[in-house]
């Protein structure tokens, strides 16, 4: 049985009448037996590689699976001061209403940034309220994210055999600035992998 994320992806593909082969695999040990002209990692997923070793292993796998001259796109959060600020207490983030139940969910976040490891530890609490505003359920989740800085990202990509052709501050192709919220790297696989 597929994990929930792949099940959801399969449903979306079927609804769009797309034929997709879904594979569950540790992408730091990528082994798909195929090559492609285009590979991407977006949705800030690169932040889940918490160590240098994991980052290098993933990028090595991408390099191996990409055809010479192929395009690789990385989209990650810009490590702005707002993103890296730790909070000592639970802070309100947002609310949303469930379209099926009509219940409101209030979302709170508590985060701590470890500057040495460049990892932000996030604790998210969702408080679900019924029609009377009474809390009927609380769900707490934890996620750790690594922030990679622009110069560091450029070094990682070029050291892994990619030539950076464009860098943007968002998906509208705006310039990368100190006010950016994203870092979008468009790269090409170089034919000769540089010596580490």
Q: What does this protein structure show overall?
A:
Strand 3 and strand 4 (104-114) form a beta hairpin. With 196 residues, the chain is α+β, with helices and mostly antiparallel strands. The mean pLDDT is 92. 20% of the residues lie in helices and 38% in strands. The chain is built from four helices and eight strands, in the order H-E-H-E-H-E-E-E-E-H-E-E. The strands form two sheets. A four-stranded mixed beta sheet has the order 1-2-8-7.
Distance between the termini: 40 Å
The secondary structure category is: alpha+beta
Task: Please tell me how large the radius of gyration is.
Answer: 20 Å
Helix fraction by DSSP (H/I, runs of at least 4): 10-25%
Unreliable stretches covering 5 or more consecutive residues:
none
Please tally the helical runs, counting DSSP H or I stretches of 4 or more residues.
4
Number of strands: 8
List the SSEs and their pairings.
Blueprint: H1 4-15, E1 36-41, H2 52-65, E2 66-77, H3 81-84, E3 91-97, E4 104-114, E5 119-129, E6 135-146, H4 150-159, E7 162-168, E8 182-189
Parallel strand pairs: 1-2
Antiparallel strand pairs: 2-8, 3-4, 4-5, 5-6, 7-8
List key phrases describing it.
globular; alpha+beta; 4-stranded mixed sheet; 196 residues; 4 helices
Short synopsis of the structure:
By secondary structure, the protein is an alpha+beta fold.
């Amino acid at each position: 049985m597929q994990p929930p994320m792949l099940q959801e992806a399969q449903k979306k593909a079927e609804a769009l009448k797309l034929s997709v082969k879904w594979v569950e695999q540790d992408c730091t040990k990528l082994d798909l037996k195929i090559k492609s002209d285009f590979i991407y990692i977006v949705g800030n997923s690169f932040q889940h590689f918490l160590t240098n070793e994991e980052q290098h292993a993933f990028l090595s796998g991408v390099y191996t699976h990409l055809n010479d001259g192929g395009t690789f796109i990385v989209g990650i959060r810009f490590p702005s001061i707002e993103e890296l600020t730790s909070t000592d207490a639970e802070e309100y983030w947002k609310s949303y209403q469930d379209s099926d139940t009509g219940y409101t969910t209030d979302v709170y976040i508590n985060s701590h940034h470890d500057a040495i490891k460049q990892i932000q530890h996030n604790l998210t609490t969702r408080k679900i309220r019924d029609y009377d505003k009474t809390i009927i359920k609380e769900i707490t989740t934890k996620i750790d994210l690594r922030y990679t800085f622009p110069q560091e990202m450029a070094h990682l990509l070029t050291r892994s055999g990619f030539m950076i052709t464009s860098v943007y501050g968002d998906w509208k192709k705006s310039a990368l600035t100190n006010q950016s919220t994203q870092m979008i790297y468009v790269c090409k696989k170089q034919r000769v992998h540089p010596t580490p």
